Amino acid sequence: MLTVSLAVHVSLVGGLALSTLHGTAISAVASSRTTMPPVMLLHSEKPPASQPSQPAPVVLTAARSVATSQPASLPTPAPSLIEKNRLALTQPPTQVLEANPNAHIQALPPEAVLSPSPAPRLDSANGVVFLLDISGSMYEPCAGSTRLACARQILAGRIRALKDGTPFAITLYALRACASGPLVAANDTTREAAVRYIMRDVDCGGGTNLPAGLAAAEELHPGAMVLVTDGDLNISAFNLATMARAILGPEDHCPGLTILGIAPRLDTGADQLLQSLADEQGGIYHVEQSEVEPPLLTSASSVTKPASATP
Asked: How many CB atoms lie under 10 A from the CB of residue 134?
């Protein structure tokens, strides 16, 4: 009986010890799980060996890029002629200058062309000198512009009509005369230089001194003269005829004179004054009209004289 009691007591004590040990182990495991850092859990987790591996991100990215790539664009058509011209006009100025190697070269002043040195030796008997009145009265209104503007346009047409090789020169006058230079042979360069010369504003003083212009033109001994003026000369017909004869010579030995009147005033006798000068020198007088083009002078030989002037 005592033996059985001891055995039961031992088994109870052993069971209680086992229960205590088991509870301690469970609590230790639970506490270790709660206090373990999350990083340790992440590092400790590993995919099962039987689970298939995932595709590399590079492969997925490459596949995605292929799926989202755009189709190849069609070739751009060649620009039209209008587009080419528009592009050419919008190019920077530096490119235009580089395309033209002579763009930096400025045109020579007209004096450099009309006053060569040494002066050419030409047959002055076939030469023509154009005289242009640039006095104050030439700035009065005429045909929607001024007398001087009309005179320049008319004279430019006659200069451009000169035949190649014709000797010619320009003389501007007001109070004093201003000559372009010696007689030069007409060509594309000298003709355009002469047109630029008459288009400039030149200071020849105030007043009108036609005898000074005639004297400057006569120094070149031309075969013909073309005078463009409005006839406001502030001189009597007798005095003008006397001075012109002294400068140009008598009727049979003077240059052929053509006078082009630019809107002469009828109330001042300018028209009669110019006609009288032409008659005294054996020349012709013509009143310029804006709507009528007079015959162009191409050389000194084309200047006609009245029958009374023929020897």
From this structure: 24
Between CA 154 and CA 293 the distance in angstroms is 8
Q: Are 155 and 198 in contact (CB under 8 A)?
A: yes
pLDDT tens across 50-105, in order?
555 555 544 444 444 444 445 555 566 665 666 656 655 565 555 444 555 555 55
Report which DSSP code applies to 148. Answer: H
Cis amide prior to 222 (ω within 30 degrees): no
Residue with tokens 């083009």: 293
How many Å apart are CA 254 and CA 244, to the nearest integer?
Answer: 10
User: Under a CB-based contact definition with an 8 Å cutoff, are residues 178 and 172 in contact?
Assistant: yes
What amino acid is encoded at 197 in this protein? Answer: Y
* Cα torsion 158, 160, 164, 165: sign: positive
| CATH, domain 121-294, list 3.40.50.410, 3.30.930.10, 3.40.50.2300, 3.40.50.1820 | 3.40.50.410
Domain range list for the chain: 121-294
Tens-place pLDDT, residues 244-265: 999 999 888 899 999 999 999 8
Q: Which residues of the chain have pLDDT under 50?
A: 1-2, 4, 8, 16-18, 21, 24-46, 57-69, 95-97, 291-311
User: Which own/partner contact pairs does 100-108 have at CB distance under 8 Å and 24+ positions apart?
Assistant: 108/193
